[in-house]
């Protein structure tokens, strides 16, 4: 039902150039609200390659997938704004599924009493500092057959609201000279920070971070 007649449709263009569609439908089994989410490519107006499909009762998790531009869904006729029908093609979108998995895991692990997403803009000034002078940087190889890495930048700001960690999750781009930011967020939850202390520790406090172009 979600693939054929979604209640909501969102689209965004991935780095690879593929147009990614997120289709959402709401269901009411008994007194419960449940959302079905399908993330896919489309070919000539029809959903084709399906990256990820799941159901959830967690609206906070659902909001993480309301990304890009909201669009009107008309089966066989939908086209992303600014794109012609010929631009909507089938194909794989590299490690996109890995990116979305990271976002889903983040939403699942955040405590309800942690800093709300509405307050994130208040801490935007911490982003550059966390990237340029992190206390810690941890790296994980994304895929066994690739040397590309996922990086976790961690910076503690004791002066911010009684003490706040700022985390930046980024990945290497194919040329190895740039990193792309996937998520950046503040937290007061030490347990959540511990989850991102995994892999290989490449930077400790006082060690300058590697100079790369960031976007």
Q: Would you write up a description of this structure?
A:
The structure is a single chain. This protein is an alpha+beta fold and 215 residues long. 15% of the residues lie in helices and 37% in strands. The chain contains 4 helices and 11 strands, in the order ββββαβααββββαββ. A hairpin with a 6-residue loop joins β2 and β3. The longest helix has 14 residues. 20% of the residues are buried.
Topology:
Blueprint: E1 8-13, E2 19-27, E3 34-43, E4 46-56, H1 59-64, E5 69-71, H2 96-109, H3 126-132, E6 136-141, E7 149-157, E8 164-172, E9 178-187, H4 190-195, E10 200-203, E11 213-214
Parallel strand pairs: 9-11
Antiparallel strand pairs: 1-2, 1-5, 2-3, 3-4, 6-7, 6-10, 7-8, 8-9
Task: Tag the structure with descriptive keywords.
disordered C terminus; six-stranded mixed beta sheet; alpha+beta; 4 helices; 15% helix; five-stranded antiparallel beta sheet; 215 residues
Which structural class do the helices and strands define?
Answer: alpha+beta
Instruction: Please write the string of helix (H) and strand (E) elements.
Output: EEEEHEHHEEEEHEE
The DSSP helix count reads 4
Strand count:
11
Radius of gyration: 19 Å
How does the overall form come out from the CA principal axes?
Answer: globular
Strand proportion, as a percent range, falls in 35-45%
The stretches of 5 or more residues where confidence is low (pLDDT under 50) are 76-97, 211-215
Span of the ends, CA to CA? 37 Å
The whole-number mean of residue pLDDT values reads: 78
Strand numbers in spatial order across the main sheet: 10-6-7-8-9-11
The helicity comes to 10-25%
Largest sheet: 6 strands, mixed
């Amino acid at each position: 039902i979600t693939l054929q007649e979604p209640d909501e449709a969102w689209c965004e263009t991935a780095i690879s150039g593929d147009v990614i569609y997120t289709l959402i439908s709401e269901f009411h089994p008994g007194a419960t609200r449940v959302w079905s989410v399908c993330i896919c490519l489309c070919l000539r107006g029809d959903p084709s390659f399906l990256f990820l499909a799941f159901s959830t009762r967690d609206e906070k998790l659902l909001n993480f997938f309301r990304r890009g531009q909201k669009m009107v869904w008309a089966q066989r006729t939908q086209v992303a704004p600014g794109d012609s029908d010929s631009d909507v093609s089938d194909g794989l979108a590299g490690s996109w599924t890995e990116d979305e998995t990271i976002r889903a895991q983040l939403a699942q692990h955040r405590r309800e009493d942690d800093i709300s997403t509405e307050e994130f803009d208040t801490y935007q000034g911490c982003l550059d500092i966390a990237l340029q002078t992190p206390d810690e940087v941890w790296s994980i190889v994304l895929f066994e057959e690739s040397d590309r890495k996922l990086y976790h930048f961690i910076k503690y700001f004791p002066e911010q609201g009684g003490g706040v960690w700022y985390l930046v999750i980024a990945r290497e781009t194919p040329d190895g000279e740039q990193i792309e930011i996937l998520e950046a967020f503040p937290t007061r939850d030490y347990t959540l920070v511990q989850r991102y202390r995994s892999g290989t520790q490449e930077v400790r406090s006082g060690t300058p971070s590697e100079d790369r172009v960031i976007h």
